[in-house]
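Section 5: illustrative case.
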């Protein structure tokens, strides 16, 4: 007999309005457990709003979020325990070092035994141990992403929700993050991330959803979605290339 594993994330009719504007418009989405999953879409498509609702940081107007089979509205504590979250624009305690932030996180989350070894491993693999006395206020963008990822992973979540983890960082830092996420998925974890970087999504993700105006335009394996082209070409085709107008004074 095979036991069916619950999807890592399941969205049903997820909707969010800001005033008259519908940012997320009845999204249905299933992210299978153990998948490296990408959400892509143009600026303002509703990616961050969707991830914020999955992360429990924004209440949906309607619809449901299920994480590892648990209803996020009813089993909030368990769902928050299962999730590791890194969102754009969330502030970090600037006057701590990276190691101090992990120590603080462990105590705040009441993480049991084993976290000091995990903190050491994370700081090392993300090369943050090279600047042990640097305060977060002096961290580069890449270092901020890395410490954010370490914070998200410290309690050993089963699902990572990451808003643009590769944005504005150099290729070496990106590889370090990618390597860590690959290991997380190889160990049975699920990664759900948003990105504008089609080459990274193509390289790392197994499945992808393309959203625009708060709706899913297409979803499937990366090969299904790109259908023999690059993901970038598919994206531009589905989203619509900008109209080019000649500007004489630029010539
Ligand atoms: N707190 C808010 N108040 C009002 N409107 C908002 C708010 N948050 C998001 N929006 C609007 O909802 C829409 C979706 O925004 P969202 O940030 O989810 O898009 P996104 O796909 O993540 O975009 P980007 O790629 O630029 O980060 C946008 O039109 C945005 O202006």
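Designed sequence:
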């Amino acid at each position: 007999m095979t036991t069916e594993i619950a999807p890592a994330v399941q969205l049903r009719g997820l909707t969010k309005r800001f005033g008259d504007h519908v940012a997320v418009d009845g999204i249905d989405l299933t992210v299978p457990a153990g998948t490296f999953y990408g959400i892509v879409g143009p600026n303002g498509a509703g990616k961050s709003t969707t991830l914020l609702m999955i992360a429990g940081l924004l209440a949906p107007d309607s619809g449901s979020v299920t994480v590892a089979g648990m209803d996020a509205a009813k089993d909030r504590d368990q769902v928050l325990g299962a999730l590791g979250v890194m969102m754009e624009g969330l502030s970090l305690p600037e006057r701590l070092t990276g190691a101090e932030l992990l120590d603080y996180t462990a105590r705040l989350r009441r993480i049991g035994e084993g976290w000091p070894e995990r903190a050491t491993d994370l700081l090392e693999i993300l090369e943050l141990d090279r600047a042990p006395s640097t305060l977060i206020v002096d961290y580069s963008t890449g270092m901020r992403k890395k410490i954010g990822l370490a914070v998200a992973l410290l309690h050993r979540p089963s699902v990572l929700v990451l808003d643009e983890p590769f944005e504005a960082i150099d290729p070496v830092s990106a590889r370090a993050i990618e390597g860590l996420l690959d290991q997380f998925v190889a160990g049975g974890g699920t990664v759900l991330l948003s990105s504008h970087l089609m080459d990274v999504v193509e390289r790392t993700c197994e499945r992808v959803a393309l959203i625009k105006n708060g709706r899913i335009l297409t979803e499937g394996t990366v090969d299904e979605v790109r259908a023999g082209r690059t993901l970038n070409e598919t994206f531009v085709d589905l989203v619509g290339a900008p109209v080019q107008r000649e500007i004489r004074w630029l010539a």
